[in-house]
Each structure stands twice: as C-alpha cells, then as structure tokens.
Write a structure and sequence with these properties.
- The complex is a heterodimer of chains A (323) and B (252).
- With 323 residues, chain A is mainly alpha-helical.
- In chain A, 66% of the residues lie in helices and 3% in strands.
- The radius of gyration of chain A is 22 Å and the shape is globular.
- Chain B is mainly α.
- Chain B has a single domain, classed as Ferritin, core subunit, four-helix bundle (Ferritin, Up-down Bundle).
- In chain B, α4 packs across α6.
- The mean pLDDT of chain B is 97.
- Chain A: One of its GO terms (cellular component) is cytosol.
Chain lengths: 323, 252
C-alpha cells in the first residue's frame, strides 16, 4: 500500500502523479487524505505555515498602536482587525494541520527562527498613519496574493483564503478610507500620511516576493495549481490598482520612474532594492529581532497558563472517570 | 428631569463609561501577546465589548449635555476621570488580568440586571443590551478563575497573589458617587449597597470553590472616584498621545 504522500521512488509514482496532475488540470480540489506528491505537501506546509506565522507576527506592529488609537471608533476597529489576524492565523494553522503537521511543530519552527513569515512585518510602525497605510498597502498586496490563492488546488487552503479575503477586503477599505481622510486633513495629518506611504510603498512591492527569475519554486507551484499567477503578475496587479488611487488622493509615491504605460495599460515601476529584501528575509530587517523576541516572550510567559489548563483538564477527566 | 438629577446622572454615566474605557484599554494591551491564540482572540473580544459599552455610556451622557465622547476619552485630563482604581492597575500576568475581569464582570452583570429596570428608559435599554454580552464575559472569566485556581501550584499561587492585590480595590465598585443617592431615590440606578451583598456571596463562593482564600486583611480600599493610582496619568498619556499630537485635527 503506497503512502498518500508519494515519492518519486515509489513504484507507481509516475502513474499516480499523472492522475493527480489530471485532477488539477480539470480544476478539482485536492482534499486531505487524497494522494499527493510529497513535494506538493512540503510546499503547501511551507506556504500555509508561513502564511499563518505572518498573521500572528503581523499582529505585533499594528497591535502596538491599539493603546494609542485617536478615537473610540478607531480603537475599536483596530482591536477587531488585529483580532481578525489572530483568527486568520488560527484557520491557517488548521489548514496546515490537515497535512499532518501539528501547531506545536509549526510554532516551534517560528520561535526557533527556522520558519519564515512575511518580510513586511519586520518594518517598524512609526506613526498612527502607518495603521491606515498597512491596511491600504499591505492588506491590499496580501489580498492580491490571497485572491489568487483562493483558487489554489488544495481544498482547505483555498477555503481558508476565501474566508480570509472577505475580512481582508474590509481591512483594506478601512485603511484606504483613513489615509485618504488624513491626506485631506490638517498639515500634520497630511504629512504623516505621506511619510507613511513613502516608507511602506517599496516594502509592499517586495512582500509579493522576488522576481519570477529569482523564484525557483514558482513553475512547480503553478503546475500543481498552488499558485495560479507569478509574483511579478500579482505585483503588477497591485501597482495598477494602488498607484493611481494614491495619486488621486493627492499623495505622491517614492518612485521617480513610476509611469503609466499606454501600450500595456500597466503602471511601470523603477528598480526594486532586492538587497534590502534579502537582508530582511535573512533576518536583518529593522524589526526582525524584536518581532521574534516578542513572540518568544509571549510564548514563554504563557507557559504556566498552558500547563495549568492541561492540569485542570486532566483532573476533570480523572474525576469524570471516577464518577 | 430636574437639574440636580441630570447632573448626578451625567456624573454616573461618566463613571460607568470611564470604568469600561480604562478596563478595555488594559485588556487590549494583551492583543498579540496572549498565552494561546484562541485566548488572545477571546480577550480581544472582551476588550471590544467593554469599549463598546464605554461608547454607549458616553453616548447616553451626550444626549444629556451634548458632550463629544471622543473629546471625553481623548482630550480629558486624568483628574477629570472617574473610573475606579481597580481598572487602572497595570495588566500584570494572565491571572491578574482574568481575575480583575472576573471581579468586574460579576459586579457589572449584577448592576446591569438591576439597571435594566431603570425608570430612565434610555438607561434601561442600554443596560439590557449590554447585559447579554456581560453574561458571556462572566461565564468566560468565571471558568478561567476556576481553571487557574485549580490548575497547578503555580497558577494557584498567581491567582491568589492577584486576589490579595485586588480584593480591596474591588470593593470600590460599590462606593456610590457623591449625589448618587438622588438617582437611587428616583429609581434611575440600583442601590450599590444592596448589590454588594449578592456580589460578595457569589464571588466568595466561586473563589473558594476555585481553591482561593479571601485575604484576611482587605488591604487598601479607595473611597472616592476622585482618587487615582499613579498609573492613570501614564495610561492616559499613552492613550491620548495621537489625539493630542495635532491640536488642529477635527477628525481622526
């Protein structure tokens, strides 16, 4: 009996792989328990857990402003937003668990620094306008990626994405509304909004991943329907939507080469500083250490709580058995 | 409503709102730092509910005096806040936060149950609305007190320390405002003295069933809502920092 995660050395691998790829080509979803190549599983665990970690680490830069939100409404919206991110982390960990990995293993990989999360969360949130800008640009970029992933061939991931996208769309709208409001506000509000756009624009472009030529996983991921578009395609969609809207709001973008290309209908951007991207991915962004440290601290400080819960549950079970 | 009653009601609504706002603020400090993802979500829910309650109470005040809830929250000085001291205390550990939330929820659920029969219709309506949420909070925090009280030696020790620290402060929840008597006489708000007995009965029983001992010495008990801890100023300095940063800003 061959395992459900097939390896190229399995005797029937070729036949099974052909069936698997034919299912994907027909647009069928792969579900937990179905046969799949081990490499498909590995890529999905990597992507889904990275995505889950991004949600959880992403709570930190925005959560830091909950205590400084300037109105009752903004404070409420921000708590709800960060809470949604925790919820997304939860669905995604569940989706990854369907591939035979536990949440504890994934958390361990995050806390030990082995697992990655989105590079964008290694930038600091310096002012209140960063909260609106993250909603508009970072969630905007995430939505482009997630809308694509909602089409993904793995059922649990695709369904998680549909649900997450609906909430992200809401966050995106709130962020955009906020930045546009400040762009029309007092001189200080306006300056704060512009400064935030200046700082987040390039990291938002980078978070969609390296150029296709530097993304060795992409062809396999596309063939297996995990990704249905390349990084550059998704980035282009993001720019085409956001660049004109930001300019329309009366703000500028920090890219002197940015221009609209009549022929293709695309907004073309100048060169991306990939050295910065790789430095951040490699652990040397402005906030990498702080973010990981905050997660480690929360985990360590919560250890006694988790132990107490386990002890209490065990005692309850014993009592139930005794009765 | 005569002027004396109106002024007393404005003061009471402010105190109610301030309690909720400051408690919500302290709870929200946990967002992103909880011991378990699911509990991070649950506490964020409670923080949102409390903040929502604050908004409702400030809103009700606003119908009486036209005040702006955001100005009250973000541009008022510490000395003008009338929350109880319990809610100002730093969030402490998970035991401290959950015990405080429990003691507060147990009080609030009782207060609201009585206040939903208020002779002042708008207050009765808000109380009834909030009560539904507050019952969920109480269920949740009551369960936490039990789990931590009966969990491990360490969780019991931390819970006990939280109780020793908070018990005196919690008594302030039942200290009426100056002038609150008028509102009680008019049937607008419940009599805190009566509620306190029920609260003591419920909480004492639950705390004891959770393996905790009431402190022999109640400790410091604040007697007036004009009094504050050293923590309020810095809490507000942080909370109001963005709103105060741009004096010209009309909207946020």
């Amino acid at each position: 009996m061959p395992g459900k995660f097939g390896k190229p050395t399995d005797p029937d691998y070729g036949e099974r792989l052909a069936e698997f790829e034919a299912r994907i080509a027909r647009g069928e979803k792969i579900e937990p328990g179905d046969w799949m190549p081990e490499e498909y599983r590995r890529q999905l665990v990597r992507m889904i857990s990275q995505h889950a970690h991004s949600e959880v680490v992403g709570m930190l830069p925005e959560g830091a402003w909950i205590t400084r939100a300037p109105s009752l409404k903004r404070k409420m919206i921000l708590i709800a937003k960060v809470q949604d991110e925790a919820g997304h982390g939860q669905y995604l960990y569940h989706a990854a668990e369907t591939l035979g990995v536990t949440r504890e293993e994934m958390l361990e990989a995050l806390l030990s620094g082995k697992a990655k999360y989105s590079s964008i969360f290694n930038y600091p949130t310096l002012t209140w306008a960063d909260i609106g800008t993250i909603g508009w640009l970072v969630d905007g970029a995430a939505i482009k990626n997630q809308t694509m992933l909602a089409q993904c061939s793995y059922g649990p991931y695709s369904r998680a994405m549909v649900r997450i996208c609906a909430e992200e769309t809401f966050h995106h709208k709130q962020g955009k509304e906020m930045v546009i409001l400040y762009a029309k506000g007092t001189p200080k509000q306006r300056a704060m909004a512009q400064d935030a756009i200046n700082r987040w624009w390039w990291p938002a472009l980078m978070m969609l991943g390296p150029h296709d030529s530097d993304s060795p996983n992409t062809p396999t991921l596309v063939r297996w329907g995990i990704k249905t578009k390349t990084n550059d395609q998704v980035r282009q969609e993001f720019i085409n939507e956001h660049a004109p809207e930001i300019l329309e709001a009366g703000l500028t973008l920090p890219d002197p080469d940015l221009r609209y290309d009549e022929a293709t209908g695309n907004w073309l951007h100048g060169p991306i500083n990939w050295d910065e991207f790789w430095a951040v991915v490699g652990g040397n962004g402005p906030m990498n250490k702080e973010r990981l440290e905050a997660r480690r601290r929360a985990h360590a400080e919560g250890a006694w709580v988790r132990e107490a819960l386990a002890a209490y549950a065990a005692r309850r079970q014993q009592t139930a058995v005794a009765v | 409503m005569n002027e004396q009653v109106k002024q007393a009601l404005i003061a009471k609504l402010t105190a109610l709102a301030d309690d909720e706002l400051i408690l919500a603020h302290r709870d929200s400090e946990w967002v992103g730092h909880g011991p378990i993802l699911e509990e991070d979500i649950a506490l964020a829910n409670i923080a949102q509910d409390e903040l929502g309650h604050a908004t409702l109470w400030y809103g009700l005040r606003s119908t009486l005096d036209g005040s702006d809830p955001d100005r009250l929250a973000f541009l008022r000085d510490a000395a003008e806040f009338h929350n109880c001291e319990l809610v100002e205390l730093p969030k402490g550990d998970w035991a401290f936060t959950l015990l405080r939330q429990y003691l507060f929820d147990a009080y609030e659920a009782l207060w609201l149950s009585a206040a939903k029969d208020s002779t002042y219709k708008p207050l009765a309506e808000v109380a009834a609305k909030i009560l539904r949420e507050e019952r969920f909070h109480l269920q949740h925090t009551q369960a936490w007190v039990e789990r931590l009280g009966l969990g491990t030696e360490e969780s019991n020790r931390r819970m006990q320390a939280a109780l020793d620290a908070q018990w005196g402060y919690a008594q302030q929840l039942f200290v009426p405002l100056e002038g609150e008597g008028v509102l009680v006489a008019e049937g607008i708000v419940p009599d805190l003295g009566g509620l306190k007995q029920t609260w003591l009965l419920h909480t004492t029983q639950h705390l004891q069933n959770s393996g905790l001992k009431l402190p022999l010495q109640p400790g410091y008990q604040p007697t007036s809502r004009q009094m504050h801890t050293e923590h309020l100023w810095s809490l507000l300095a942080e909370m109001q920092s963005t709103a105060r940063w741009d004096a010209e800003a009309k909207v946020w």
